[in-house]
Amino acid sequence: MEMYLPILFVVSLLFSYSHSSVLDFCVADLSMPDGPAGYSCKKPANVTVNDFVYSALAITGNTSNFIKAAVTPAFADQFPGVNGLGLSMARIDLAVDGVVPIHTHPGGSEILFVVEGTICAGFISSSANTVYFRTLYKGDVMVFPQGLLHFQFNSGNTSALAIVGFNSPSPGVQITDFALFGNNLPSALVEKVTFLDHAQVKKLKAVFGGTG
């Protein structure tokens, strides 16, 4: 044991030095551009307690839209205090028949906690396209691995509420329907890559606001 003591001492010094050199926090300076490593840090003299508190998740989201759902994010863009900390949250409100369409978070894994109502949720593996889905009830938790296509919808008779967490301050989001039908990608190309007919593509473009 004695032969290991010098090694343990050196290692403890290294860890002590490493810890002391790490910033306590890096509150996002939203006046600067975002980058792969996140936002630049706000000067400590300009940091206040308000940077570490965010109250928007207490507000019910507006579900009066065609998907009957609202997602209220608490990412670094909205909640500067989470910048650099490797975590963030969001609130999902689902009216009856509300749906969060198939989407992906390229920058982080997600964990969902059902606060009220009944939610059917699932994801699709990238290797064998296996679908993992389950009806979730109040108190249930489900995890969605990073980058995988997943969805949630209200499968009950009352409004539903969920709180989700991410292991990234900026997990990003790409909704498949909007990516295909909510832009100016030519209809002929969409038809080619989705095997949908012209009438279906035009209908979906009208729903999601796309052109072309």
Automatic annotation (TrEMBL):
Record SMART domains: Cupin_1
What GO cellular component is one of the record's annotations? apoplast
Q: List the disulfide bonds.
A: C26-C41
Kindly indicate where the leader peptide sits in this chain.
Answer: 1-20
Q: A Gene Ontology molecular-function term?
A: manganese ion binding
Q: Which residues bind oxalate?
A: H105, E110
Keywords linked to the UniProt accession: Apoplast, Disulfide bond, Manganese, Metal-binding, Secreted, Signal
- List the subcellular locations: Secreted, Extracellular space, Apoplast
Q: Where is the Cupin type-1 domain?
A: 55-202
Source organism superkingdom: Eukaryota
Question: Binding residues for Mn(2+), per the UniProt record?
Answer: H103, H105, E110, H150
Which family, according to UniProt?
A: Belongs to the germin family.
The protein's name in its UniProt record: Germin-like protein
Query: What organism does the UniProt record list as the source?
Result: Camellia sinensis var. sinensis (China tea)
